[in-house]
From TrEMBL, chain A:
Alphabetic keyword roster: Signal
UniProt key word Signal: yes
Keyword Signal found: yes
Family of this protein: Belongs to the UPF0065 (bug) family.
Lineage summary: Bacteria, Pseudomonadati, Pseudomonadota, Alphaproteobacteria, Hyphomicrobiales
Superkingdom per UniProt: Bacteria
Protein name (record): Tripartite tricarboxylate transporter substrate binding protein
Entries under InterPro entries matching the protein: BUG (IPR005064), Bug_dom1 (IPR042100), TAT_signal (IPR006311)
Signal peptide bounds: 1-37
Pfam families xrefs: TctC
Automatic annotation (TrEMBL), chain B:
Domain DUF112: 14-433
Matching InterPro entries: DUF112_TM
Gene source species: Tianweitania aestuarii
PANTHER family per the UniProt record, alphabetical: TRICARBOXYLIC TRANSPORT PROTEIN
Pfam (any one): TctA
TM annotation in the entry: 14-43, 55-76, 103-122, 142-175, 187-210, 254-277, 309-329, 349-372, 384-402, 459-481
Name of the protein in question: Tripartite tricarboxylate transporter permease
Top-level taxon: Bacteria
Swiss-Prot/TrEMBL keywords: Membrane, Transmembrane, Transmembrane helix
Keyword DNA damage included in the entry's annotation: no
TrEMBL record, chain C:
UniProt organism field: Tianweitania aestuarii
UniProt KW keywords: Membrane, Transmembrane, Transmembrane helix
InterPro entries for the chain: DUF1468 (IPR009936)
Name under which the protein is recorded: Tripartite tricarboxylate transporter TctB family protein
Transmembrane segments: 12-28, 48-66, 96-112, 118-137, 144-161
């Protein structure tokens, strides 16, 4: 056995040696080319999306990255990297893996504030540098079309007459839960819950008569809500695509949730890189094609610069923390 | 519908479908790479394609990927994709008994039948089925999964205590991570990487592929004989239709139905129809030792589950699994949302999906049937090279799911755990089943209790759930009852 | 060591491992908050499983400690039931060193990629060559062939993943 092993090692070393020789010839030119370029960006920028591909955060990132590449607003392409898992912990680990040089950034939403408010994952807002917001969208509350109540007022009255008589489909500790809790606090009612951790679950439970109220993104409602009835919209103003759905503020409840598309870099990323990326993003969000896509999908196209976005986020985080304390 | 089929026969669509199916089979067959990963990774490529092309490519990958998994499951005891776990139970023993080609042929046949039957459901009665599936709430999900768990308890061969321990350990490994019922971390012991728990893919690749590689490494080097291609004629006959027909039909229906329920996928479909096939079998003791019906049941159901899962996808826009969620993503980027309006607004896509599913199944049959002889020869590749290549794919695959090395370490750890369990004679089947099913059962039970305000008797108002629960307990008690009955029959005979 | 003895030792180790796992479950469960939205709460399933695992492990340990007699009756049955598992344990007995070598190679490979950021192609080539040497037939040519397969495989994977799928390995 021992001799076998010694021979094995000799064989390994010799085979590896041959392979190495082959490798140096292929790798050297790459190393040379990296030393030459100057000015940001010199190589592709990795954009980390903390979800599997296909969701809103992912699609928006890809559209914008495509547009920037098409128009040449950055010298190098932006490459989307999907890192799902761990309430964003995996994505943030990826973000912080290299130097904060602007070549690895992240595209997320205010869900990051949820993770922070719920103390999931070991990160805080100070770990990030905000690049800016490229628009966003608001959700709405929907009930079944054949339900006896047709408006938020009727739902509130029903719940006040018989507390906990209606079932709300939410993922406990997720955005739908928080928004529902804020509204419930404002209006002074209480619902029962049923676990629904995705839009698909909420739709399935609501349509199947296993839940009475659920939260949807406005775009989901537009395409899938044939048998649903939207009763309240949580945007600042009414959505142009849904002119008949009142906002919560109009109805007298101070609940607003505008979930933005937020671009983040690790803290310590140099100004030059942040400004360059922000410039490209701002151009992209003002591009007619992107505006058209946003409007069709009930998203609002707008640009908010990094610092304003960070201030807004801090305010929102404050109010989320109060809700988190109450519901835990 | 006919129009859609005609559109599909345009050269480019057919070509994309063929590429997708072929790619799917290859990727599905490689342990470590799965259909959903392939679809996730190729999704960005489809953004610049025509939507019909994109859909045909992805559907082809889906069908091919689920079907390809049977190859390595049978030949190497490494399920190429999670849906093929049960195929290893009987497929590999068959291969060891020298019936590899027959196992492959049966598996391919079963896959196609499952695909075609579920296509019939998809094309014929989507709206009705979707409507019924919607009535399933948390209680029904819980009862159904409990039924599956109890039925599978009967699968335990060898020591019952060890099988139960295996199942309990599997369930325990599913616990760490964010508790989906309350959105809080549990049993993560302070490790952020554990927040999403142990991923299904790393655990399965570890427990099956890595542990098998480690075991194979210990096997004395076989003298590889001269390279031999199996016979041209595959060992399946017309009589097989009679022998396996009822099983295939039953498994197709089960597979379609399970696929129809969002959140429960092909792997569960295969597990359930496998255990039901065993309940119906006249010689259940042969399951796990190379019983043909086992291969047929699993492979029929996992393919049927695809057709089932496409039903809520195209009628309501509800994805049944991660794979379907990604398909929806592919459509949204082209500004198409699956849902009730899809048939009105863009019928070419809605019917295109249905037609593509049919053609993908047929292409899969042609591709796999014509190459099965060469596929079977994989087992003859020199072991050192084959194991190395698979090992590299396992590492790359586990990494690529979420771009995370943590998953790779999890995979290695479960490889060692799997090997230790097998050495201690704890069967891996119950372990994996516990791991897959326990989280669904727990979440749904807790959702039910939440919904009913803690009132367990609420289940009495749910007829479907009650039926499942009765079957579940019947399955649990059946071995004891049948033994008792047999005794009485013997006594009266005497 | 004869077969029943070996099984008994294996069973005791299994029981010990399971008990440690059960301990972890109880420890983890004790730190969870009480139920909030439903009566079961997060800690229920860990506790139930902890109890189940403890009981099952104790049964197995007791069976192993009480020893040989009952095993000699059960053994043929269990062995015939799990052909694959049984033959696996025989095989490992044959060349356990190879298993350990392959495992070590795998760990070093992943550590090289993850911690030391060794380029993928280089690490893969060395891994393949090493595996070839551990497992291959006793010929230099085989090892080289496999090493070259490694380079080609690694280059192919890297090309496809980086060029088309935008995944950088490592």
């Amino acid at each position: 056995m021992a001799r076998d092993f010694r021979r094995a090692i000799v064989r390994t070393v010799s085979a590896a040696g041959i392979a190495l020789a082959a490798l140096t010839t292929t790798c050297l030119p790459q190393l040379m080319s990296q030393a030459q370029a100057e000015g940001f960006p010199e190589k592709p920028i990795r954009v980390i999306v903390p979800f599997k591909p296909g969701g809103r955060t992912d699609v928006v990132a890809r559209l914008i990255a495509d547009k920037i590449q098409e128009k040449g607003w950055l010298e190098q392409p932006m490459v989307i990297v999907n890192a799902d898992g761990g309430a964003g912990a995996n994505a943030i680990a990826q973000l912080q893996r290299g130097e904060p040089d602007g070549y690895t950034i992240m595209h997320w939403s205010h869900e990051i504030l949820m993770s922070i408010a719920m103390n999931l994952g070991n990160f805080k807002l100070e770990d990030f540098r905000s690049i800016g917001l490229t628009g966003g969208g608001s959700p709405l509350w929907a009930v079944r079309k054949d339900a006896p109540y047709k408006s938020l007022e009727e739902v509130v009255t029903a719940l006040k007459e018989k507390p906990r008589s209606l079932v709300e489909a939410v993922g406990i500790g997720s955005i739908p839960h928080f928004i529902g809790a804020m509204l419930a606090q404002e209006a002074g009612f209480e619902t029962r819950y049923v676990t629904a951790n995705s839009n698909a679950d909420r739709l399935r439970l609501l349509l199947g008569n296993n839940a009475d109220i659920a939260l949807f993104a406005a775009s989901e409602y537009v395409t899938q809500g044939k048998d649903l009835n939207a009763i309240v919209y949580f945007g600042r103003e009414r959505s142009p695509a849904l002119p008949d759905v009142p906002t919560a503020t109009e109805l007298g409840y101070n609940v607003v949730w505008a979930n933005p598309n937020w671009w983040l870099a690790p803290a310590g990323t140099p100004d030059e890189a942040v400004q360059k990326i922000a410039g490209a993003l701002e151009k992209a969000i003002n591009d007619p094609e992107i505006i058209e896509y946003f409007k069709q999908n009930t998203l609002d196209p707008y640009w908010t610069d990094g610092e304003t976005a960070m201030t807004e986020a801090q305010e929102t985080l404050g109010s989320l923390r109060t809700v988190a304390e109450r519901i835990q | 519908m006919l129009d859609a089929l005609l559109v599909l026969f345009q050269v480019d669509n057919l070509l994309f479908l063929l590429c997708g199916t072929a790619l799917g089979i290859v990727v599905g067959a490689i342990p470590g790479l799965t259909a959903s990963m392939l679809i996730a990774l190729t999704l960005p490529l489809t953004f610049h394609m025509d939507p019909v092309n994109a859909v045909t490519l992805l559907i082809g990958e889906y069908v091919g990927g689920i079907s390809g998994g049977l190859i390595t499951a049978i030949l190497l005891r490494m399920p190429g994709t999670p849906s093929s776990i049960v195929t290893t139970f009987d497929g590999y023993p068959m291969a060891q008994q020298g019936k590899a080609e027959r196992a492959l042929a049966l598996g391919i046949m079963a896959s196609v039948v499952g695909g075609l039957v579920s296509w019939a459901f998809l094309a014929g009665m989507s709206p009705t089925l979707a409507h019924v599936a919607l009535q399933f709430g948390p209680w029904e999900y819980f009862a159904l999964v409990l039924m599956a768990l109890f039925m599978l308890a009967a699968l335990a061969s060898g020591s019952l205590v060890k099988a139960l321990l295996g199942a309990a350990l599997g369930m325990a490994f599913a616990l760490p991570g964010i508790d989906s019922s309350v959105g809080r971390d549990r049993l993560t012991f302070g490790f952020d990487s554990l927040l999403s728990g142990f991923g299904l893919l790393p655990v399965l690749i570890g427990a099956f592929a890595i542990s098998q590689i480690l075991r194979e490494a210990a096997a004395p080097a076989k003298a590889t004989g001269p390279f031999r291609l199996p016979d041209r004629h595959l060992p399946v006959h017309v009589s097989d239709i009679r022998r396996h027909g009822p099983n295939m039909m039953r498994s197709s229906v089960i597979g379609t139905w399970i696929g129809l329920l969002p959140g429960i996928g092909g792997n569960v479909a295969a597990l359930i129809s496998y255990s039901i096939a065993r309940q119906f079998s006249r010689n259940p003791e042969r399951f796990g030792k190379g019983e043909e019906a086992g291969v047929v049941a699993g492979e029929t159901a996992n393919n049927a589950a695809i057709g089932g899962a496409l039903i809520p996808l195209i009628t309501m826009g509800i994805p049944g699994s991660v794979t379907e969620a990604i398909l929806i993503g592919a459509l949204t980027i082209h500004n198409l949302q699956p849902g009730p309006l899809l048939f009105q607004n863009s019928p070419e896509i809605a019917y295109g999906i249905i037609a593509a599913y049919l053609v993908a199944n047929i292409l899969m049959l042609i591709l796999m049937w014509s190459t099965v002889r060469y596929i079977a020869a994989i087992a003859q590749i020199p072991r050192a090279g084959l194991l190395g290549v698979i090992l590299v794919f396992c590492v790359v695959g586990s990494f690529a799911v979420n771009n995370s090395f943590f998953d790779v370490w999890v995979m290695i750890a479960f490889g060692v755990i799997g090997l230790c369990l097998e050495l201690a004679k704890v069967p891996l089947g119950p372990f994996v089943i516990g791991f897959v099913l326990a989280p669904i059962a727990e979440e749904q039970l807790r959702a039910s209790m939440m919904m009913s305000d803690g009132d367990v008797t609420a289940v009495l108002q749910r007829p479907f759930a009650l039926v499942f629960l009765v079957i579940a307990f019947a399955a649990l008690l059946w071995p004891a009852v049948s033994a008792h009955l047999a005794k009485r029959v013997r006594r009266t005979a005497e | 060591m004869n077969q029943p003895r070996k099984t008994a030792v294996g069973d005791l180790l299994l029981a010990a491992g399971a008990l440690i796992g059960a301990g972890l479950l109880f420890w983890g469960a004790s730190e969870l908050p009480p139920p909030r939205f439903e009566p079961l709460g997060s800690a229920a399933l860990p506790r139930i499983l902890g109890v189940c695992i403890t009981v099952l492990a104790l049964i197995i340990a007791a069976g192993a400690a009480l020893g040989g007699k009952r095993h000699s009756i059960q053994e043929p049955d269990a062995a015939s039931d799990e052909v694959a598992a049984a033959d696996a344990s025989d095989l490992s007995a044959a060349r356990p060193l190879q298993t350990i070598a392959v495992l070590a190679a795998l760990i070093v490979y992943v550590a090289a990629l993850d911690v030391f950021r060794v380029p993928f192609v280089l690490a893969t080539t060395i891994l393949m060559a090493a595996l070839g040497a551990f497992l291959g037939v006793a010929r230099l040519r085989t090892a080289i062939t496999i090493g070259i397969t490694g380079v080609l495989l690694a280059l192919a994977i890297q090309f496809v993943f980086e060029r088309y799928l935008y995944v950088t390995i490592g």
